[in-house]
Amino acid sequence: MPMSAFADWAENLREAVGELARYRQESCTGAPPVVRQIPMAGIIESLGLRKHLQEGGLTDGTLHRFLRDYLDLTVRLHHPGSMAHQVAAPHPAAALAMLVEGATNNPMAIYEMGPAAAAIEAFLLDWLRAKAGWPGGAGGVFTHGGSLANLTAIVAARSRFDKGLWAQGCRGDLALIASADCHYSIARTAGILGIGEEGVFAVPTDGSGRMQPEKIDETIQRALSAGRRPFALVANACSTATGIYDPLPEIAAVCRRHGLWLHVDGAHGAAALLSPRHRRRLEGIEQADSLVWDAHKLLCTPGLCTALLVRDAAALDHAFHEDASYLFHEKAQPGFDFIHRTVECTKASLGFRLFVVLAALGESGIAAYIDGRLELTRQAYLLLSRVPGWECPVEPQSNILCFRMPGTDEDQLQIRDRLLADGDFHLSTAVLGGRRYLRMVLTSEATTLEDLHRLVSRIQQMTKHL
Ligand SMILES: Cc1ncc(COP(=O)(O)O)c(C=O)c1O
Fold it and tell me: What's the CA-to-centroid distance between 268 and ligand 1, angstroms?
């Protein structure tokens, strides 16, 4: 790119940052729609994508205009009506970190390619390890997302179980024991690793999504009867649909008895470890073998940013094998290559994103944020479960709440679509026990109890016209 393409880079950045600050502030007021569902072809057309590629020159002043149009078409996660998905409303410090990342482009999985970012990642992993109550000797890596981290953890578990499988491949006789309500990335992991989806044996959950530990033994027996070798168990902390935590101490005891690797998928809920008030939800985590912890869900960090912690660092260090003469050779270096612990080769400075958020808020600040969103979710539960005819099937333990208003499954979907079309509220849905529920995930700091009252009134008005 000729340097002339950005005549005044600093000025462009100032303008862009100003635009983003306006965007964030405007979103927090709730004035613009939280989301606009415009057909894709319309967006391609209105942003002039074809023209820009043909003609080039999207720089300086024109880029600023394009950015404004683009922002107008985004989902506004800082909006008070943003309640749909498990995605953080990012802290501005993290956005700045991503700007630095974009400008420096230091893929840090090889120490010499990003020493500052690698040092921050190592420091932060150790800090998170201590928050989980694990002793030194544990190790970890940041990955691009919880799905990839789950896969990586199961690779480590499989390697420890049978070192030969890396070279020989699976024979279709492994079994993964997992909560019936585990995230779909676990079944994908089984498919990718050659365990096969049929190699995932589900431990039944109660109506709330909580694993029933007394059913683990019979699940293991089912796997053994099918001629499979169980090697790991996946527990949720917390579950995706309802935000409910599995009982880790009881689960850990069964895993110990059977010699199973205990993997805790804390992609959504491990954040509670940073709250003195809520960390009890993860009681028993100190007995787990691995833990996945997303920062882009409840830690105000933009995606993707996931910490994978493994109690015995050696298991992760021996999980992958690789050969690349241009990267791996004897060298004296004052740091550590994370590349041996991850699927990825080129890897962004993920720890840096999270570090700046934590350093901006401080430990008490992030705890206050988590406590605030969980408290609001509890208040939402009290409010919604008292509305005549409405039901909240599960008392929340995180910032996720499922609810249902009178009517059919189709009615729940229709209400969501109408709210979306109006642009005031963005909700998701989930199926529990064969019935569809509306679902909210409260992450925006702009959302208040008043907004939840407004949501109830709006839905009640809408149901009159269903
Ligand atoms: C429990 C759980 N695990 C894993 C994931 C996947 O994480 P990611 O979206 O970061 O890949 C999710 C996402 O919702 C989740 O809720």
Answer: 7
